[in-house]
């Protein structure tokens, strides 16, 4: 998986990251791992938006897209952060 197949977008800017392999990623078994995807990007003062997007790809083969199952995101910083959680899919996007 790399930034062409799975996008990390911070405040409208798509971040580049090196590819990664997710071991034992069986679609029928939910195993979660911490993976560092992007480092060194800057959050602005005020509101920030972090988007995770599965792009068209052939990871699963055939005619379906493949991508990670995401349980959470972690942001490490010395800044005092607050968040507004999204508990459902944003309207207009598929599950």
Write a concise synopsis of the structure shown.
It is built from no helices and 3 strands. The protein has strands spanning 6-10, 13-15, 50-54.
Please, could you describe this protein's structure?
It is a single chain. The chain is mainly β and 95 residues long. It has one domain. 0% of the residues lie in helices and 14% in strands. The chain contains no helices and 3 strands. A 3-stranded antiparallel sheet has the order 2-1-3, with no helix packed on it. A hairpin with a 2-residue loop joins strand 1 and strand 2. The protein starts with 5 loop residues before the first strand and ends in a 41-residue tail after the last strand. The model has no long low-confidence stretch (mean pLDDT 77).
Write the layout of secondary structure elements.
Blueprint: E1 6-10, E2 13-15, E3 50-54
Antiparallel strand pairs: 1-2, 1-3
Structural class: mainly beta
The amount of helix comes to under 10%
Contiguous low-pLDDT stretches (5 residues minimum) are none
Spatially, the strands of the biggest sheet line up as 2-1-3
When the domains are counted, the total is 1
* Terminal CA distance: 20 Å
* Annotation field: number of helices: 0
Strand content: 5-15%
Mean pLDDT: 77
Largest sheet: 3 strands, antiparallel
From the spread of the alpha carbons, the general shape counts as globular
Q: What is the C-alpha radius of gyration, as a whole number of Å?
A: 15 Å
Q: Please give the number of β-strands.
A: 3
Series of H and E elements:
EEE
């Amino acid at each position: 998986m790399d930034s062409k197949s799975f996008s990390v977008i911070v405040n409208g800017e798509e971040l580049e990251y090196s590819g990664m392999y997710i071991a034992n990623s069986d679609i029928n078994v939910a195993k979660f791992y911490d993976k560092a995807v992007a480092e060194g990007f800057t959050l602005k003062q005020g509101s920030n938006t972090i988007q995770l997007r599965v792009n068209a790809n052939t990871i699963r083969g055939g005619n379906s897209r493949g991508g990670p199952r995401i349980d959470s995101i972690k942001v490490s910083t010395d800044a005092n952060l607050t968040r507004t959680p999204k508990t459902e899919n944003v309207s207009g996007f598929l599950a």
